[in-house]
Amino acid sequence: MIGFCYPLVILGLIVSTIYVVASLRRHGASAGYRLHRFDAADSRPLRGIMALLIVMTHVSFKYSETDTCWGFTSFGAPIVSTFFFLSGYGLVVQYERKGRAYLDGFIRKSMSKILPPFVLASLIWMSVSCIFMDGDISDNLIGFIVFRPPLPYSWFVYALVLFYLAFYFVFRYVRQMNVSRQIVLLMFTLMMTIVFRMLKFEVYWYISLFAFNIGAMYGGYKDVVNNIFREYTMGVLIALIVMLGGMMIFNIRTGLLAFIPLGIIVPVLIMGSGARYWLLSELGKVSYEIYLAHGIVVPILSLYGLSWGVCIMLAESMSLALAIVIKRVISSCNSFILLQRVFNW
Questions:
Q1: 257-to-24, 54, 82, 252, 318 alpha-carbon distances in Å
Q2: How far apart are CA 285 and CA 117, in angstroms?
Q3: Which of 114, 207, 214, 223 has a CA between 20 and 30 Å from the CA of residue 123?
Q4: Across residues 302-314, what is the average pLDDT?
Q5: For the whole model, what pTM was predicted?
Q6: Of 47, 38, 36, whose CA–CA distance to 281 is shortest?
Q7: How far apart are CA 62 and CA 325, in angstroms?
Q8: Cβ contact 74:1 at 8 Å
Q9: Range name among 92-106, 214-228, 249-263 with the lowest pLDDT average
Q10: DSSP state string for 69-86
Q11: How many helices (H) and strands (E) does the chain have?
Q12: Residues 314-324 pLDDT 10s
């Protein structure tokens, strides 16, 4: 399953090299060429694309290994790696911009963004499965506690919550230089990986986790990394290709998937602001909800014997529609709660 993504990784890095070299030659070192800073607006289109691809991936799992669509099943782990990379990067960049004030109320604010959509999507799925699919309500409720979430494909929410909590405690209480915080975060991810493997969790629970650390490191040292990319472009990308090739040969999948996002981020850095891609930016705003919603839509569609193409179109459109509904419901609830606080209801 993972093997299919290897040539895509190398191809992505080669395309990255072409973009970098072409831009350097076009602008010239004397023109003060700089890599784009890659802020939140740039990441939204990428998040939107990743969300659509993850729907395609999980639809493809429902079809035979002999079908041509089976190759899309290799996209899952690289997509989740990119998602974790962006999460780690975003947290560190926000902290550097706002300082320790960013940590004030951090757990409440971050959990209020992650958990309500997850709970709502889970309740929708539990209702559907118990009414139409012989689901067991008690088994579903126990699953929340024992890291066996009832909502399909929602395991990443647990990893995300653990990462956010780790980030908060590390950046709140580890007050030494940035490198110390990065090391502690890395050790936490290593511990997560070991525990998940000891508990015999499925491989997808831990294979992409280290991408969060790569994103956090890039966020903490982006100016240094960008300068290295600019000054030693070919050398860096050749080194990445060699390193990834070694990981492929020795089947070091967790390391390979941790570095895959770099092959995606470099072209984005070169191409400039992603905010200009309005439609993809809007899609990126509901990307998290798409991840959740497709866990409801894909299992239902798989019951009807649809062709792969039809199933893809329906899954993408229905997941997007349900994602928008989930986001608006949560937003409306938050607005009502805010009004209650303002007027002391």
A1: 28, 15, 9, 9, 29
A2: 13
A3: 207
A4: 91
A5: 0.84
A6: 47
A7: 25
A8: yes
A9: 249-263
A10: GGGGGGGHHHHHHHHHHH
A11: 14, 0
A12: 999 999 999 99
Q: Please, are residues 55 and 290 in contact by the beta-carbon 8 Å criterion?
A: yes
**Angle (CA) 15 93 170, round 5°:** 120
Angle, vertex CA 160, rays to CA 155 and CA 162, nearest 5: 105
What is the token pair recorded at 25?
A: 């030659």
Read off the pLDDT of each residue in 282-297 and give the average, rounded to a whole number. 94
The C-alpha R_g of the chain, in whole angstroms, comes to: 21
Q: How far apart are CA 256 and CA 12, in angstroms?
A: 14
* Terminal-residue alpha carbon distance, the chain: 54
CA distance 289 to 319: 8
- Compute the distance between CA of residue 127 and CA of residue 322 in angstroms, rounded to an integer: 15
| Token pair of 107 as six digits | 């757990």
The H or E element containing residue 291 is helix 287-301
Q: 130 is written with which tokens?
A: 């118990």
Structure tokens given for 9: 């990784």
Give CA–CA dist 228/233, Å, rounded: 7
> Rounded CA gap, 115 and 134, in Å?
26
Structure tokens at 307: 């062709």
Q: CB 77: neighbour CB atoms within 10 A? A: 23
